[in-house]
Every structure is written in structure tokens, then in C-alpha cells.
Amino acid sequence: MPEILQEQDRKANRPHICSYCGCEIKKGEVYEWEKLIDEGRIYEWKNHKKCGFIAGQLWDYVEPDNGMTEDDFIDACSQFCRTFICPNCRMADKDTYDELECIDDRSFCIDKIYDFLQTHEFYRERRNGWSEVWKCRERKDK
Predict the structure, then answer these.
(1) Most exposed: 38, 59, 75, 116, by fewest CB within 10 Å?
(2) Each residue of 82-109: pLDDT tens digit?
(3) Could you tell me where the DSSP H helices lie in the chain?
């Protein structure tokens, strides 16, 4: 598991690529920056604030062993979007439904997921003592 050496919010002086969604962090945009060490290797992680929030909300959904990778994030967003946001989304490429990809920008409705998670709580409910199902409900604090 990577160890965080340093973390802060930064304002982009030039474009960067988000380590979660793979889309551009635009010049002038505030983003989250971390310096990490993993197995002796030091590296930087840069992500949109929106993607950082989504990753935090979906962390248990993914249950990453060694931190959430870009693939973990995209898979979690795809599954969450397909299940909770737009199960019949007209943007879904029906030819690759098992690997749902938005036709426009591959963002899996990141804005919709972010807006939804601002007002809804995503949680795991146990059934029959051992099986689990993921559900959403409106946040009481909103």
C-alpha cells in the first residue's frame, strides 16, 4: 500500500492528466496533488477534486488492495453509473455493454456521479447474514 509523503491542493500552472479519470486537469484549475512512496518508488498522483471525492465515496465498492488505480476508478464509475445513475443511458455503446464506455468522452458521467453523491449516501446492506447489496439513499444532512 502506498504511503503518502506529502499532499496539498494546487492550482495548475499548466495542463496535467488526472490519475483517476485520465482526462485533462486544465490550466488554472485547483487539483489534489500527492507525493507517494511504494516499494521504494516515489511518484506523484494528481487528480481532479471531483474525482478524489468520487474515489473516496466508491472506495469500499472497489475494495482496492494497494490503492485505487485508474482502471479501478473507471470500472467503479462505469458500474456505479450503469446501476444507479443511468441504467438505460442513451450514451452507452451497446456493442460493448460489458465494458460500458460513454461515447463522448469516456468519463462515465463523472459530473452526474459527483452530483448524485453530493445528495445521496452509497452504502452496503447485508442480507441473510452473509450476502450484500449496494444501495443509495438521500443524505439526511442535505
Answers:
(1) 38
(2) 788 776 665 555 554 444 455 445 546 7
(3) 49-62, 70-80, 110-119
